[in-house]
Amino acid sequence: MSLVLGTLAIVSLFISFMASACLLAKTKQRFGTAQLEEPISILKPLKGVDEGLYENLVALARQDYPHFEILFGAEDADDPALDVARRVQAEFPDVKMRIVLGAASDGLNPKVRLLRRLLPLATHEWILVSDSNVRPARSYLREIRACQEETRADLVHNLLVGVGERSLGAKLENLHMNGWVSASIAFCDAGEHPCVIGKSMLMKKSSLAQVGGFEDVRDILAEDYILGSRFGAAGMKVVLSPHLLPVVSGARDFGVFWNRHVRWGQLRRHIAPVFFLGEIFVNPLPFLIGWACVAGPEFRGFALAALAVKWLVDIAMWRRLGAGSSWSTFLWLPVKDSLIPLMWVTSGVRTRVSWRGNRM
After folding, report:
1. Could you tell me what percentage of the chain is helix, strand and coil, using 3-state DSSP and rounding each to the nearest 5?
2. How far is CA 245 from CA 2, 109, 323, in A?
3. Which of 29, 160, 163, 299 has its CA 20 to 30 A from that of 238?
């Protein structure tokens, strides 16, 4: 048992360090200035007032980019997020913005219903799908365009960094986002496997149409990942931009954190069941703790030291991402890593999800 647990712990630790190395390498990438600053239509689906929504929309309106428009869309005409959008529209009269009411009439995915409503109204060939809880830096559009131009990518998505935690749920969310999630996405990118999270997706209308458009993913909850996979399968290039895109967590409660990552686990279980089964081996904590419990004293200290090193690497990557936080947040790393196996088990048996008030 000691030999088995020790082997699994070392393999798991190696995979974890490899993923962190891929994340570090991605953050070191730099691109020049885009020569062709193509105009961009930003599709911004809204539902409810996320914490910091006003600041998020203002950050988008302040982009240091010559030609772009923003299309805000909400399915419900009484959605309070529209009042925030109208305020931003009034404060930035020089930025082309449009508020669109209603959504496509069919399709199970509410976000895709909104995107299908917004897409025909976009006046530019390049479109950017942008979620409501991201708060981009002023250089965001310039940098993702430079990345696209230099790599000749057909789809560009972004490294995400969780910021602004003010509650336990938000701290756990950001620890996971800035650790396992970001490292996993960078690891997949290094292996040329597109793993797209749809908080930021830059692409051409014509390229989207080639893979079936939003219509073909109207009944899929993981539409972002599926679109990335279809781009790759069609021979088009999917690139992860090193531009760090802040995602504001704010004061979300523990239940939101738990349900979100259980839901993501359920999606991965359906998309790639073999890899989902292998995820348990990516978190070294249960194997290192088990090894420390059954191993002799000569290995027990090594197992505990390895666990401490793993957490130090997580902290180093957090600082590398520039997430900013009090050091007290890192005290929750053992709790977060202990919850991951429980979420994995729950993802393996749960058959329904709850997302933004929609039970499916």
Report:
1. 55, 15, 30
2. 42, 24, 10
3. 163
